[in-house]
Every structure is written in C-alpha cells, then in structure tokens.
Write a structure and sequence with these properties.
This protein is mostly helical. The chain has helices at about 1-20, 20-25, 30-45, 55-80. The protein has one domain (about 1-80).
Length: about 110
C-alpha cells in the first residue's frame, strides 16, 4: 500500500511541481519555497511518499537536466546532421533549381 501511494504521489504531485521548474525556478520566493517544502514534509509525514523531498534539490536537478538536454539538442543540430530533424539539407528541385541552405559545423551558411 505504501509503495502505491508513493507512485501516485510521484505521478501526480511531483510531476505538477517539476513540470516547468527550470523556467520559473528563479521566480520562486523564499515563502513559495517554504510552502512547497511544507507540502513535501506533510506528504512524507502522512505516508504519501517514501522520501523527504526538498524544492531546492528538485530545482538543482531540473536545471542540470534541462542544460544537458539543451546542449545535446544543440550538438545534434550542428554535428549529427544525418540523425536530427531540424537540420536543413540541400535539396534541388528539377522545376525551380533552388537550394535550401544548410548550416556548416562552424554555424555559418556556406
């Protein structure tokens, strides 16, 4: 029963809190953080989750993972051109003979 409550708490409450955390973490005041931490303490005390959560730890984790995802996306756009959908490849049309520009690894148009 305890594991089921933890799964439900994580799926609903924790996902809502961490959904846009990298975007609005800088806007949280100390009182906002205290209210969220109070929610986490009450959930732990009442047995809704197995671990004591802290909003500052969640912010650090969310920001680090967002930075990692952003850098991976940027790297794939520049270097892994055959695998990423945002890269434009040269296409010549028999009717228009136009060329769609590509970005070189240095970030410049050829």
């Amino acid at each position: 029963m305890q594991d089921a409550l933890h799964v439900i708490f994580t799926a609903i409450v924790l996902s809502v809190v961490t959904y846009a955390l990298p975007s609005f973490a800088g806007q949280l005041s100390q009182s906002d953080k205290a209210r969220i931490n109070s929610l986490f303490r009450k959930a732990f005390k009442r047995g809704l989750c197995n671990t004591q959560l802290n909003i500052d730890d969640l912010i650090d984790t969310a920001v680090q993972s967002a930075d990692t995802i952003d850098s991976r996306l940027f790297h794939q756009m520049l270097w892994d051109k055959q695998y990423h959908c945002l890269v434009l490849t040269p296409i010549t049309s028999p009717k228009t003979r136009c060329l769609v520009p590509t970005v070189t690894p240095s970030g410049q148009f050829p």
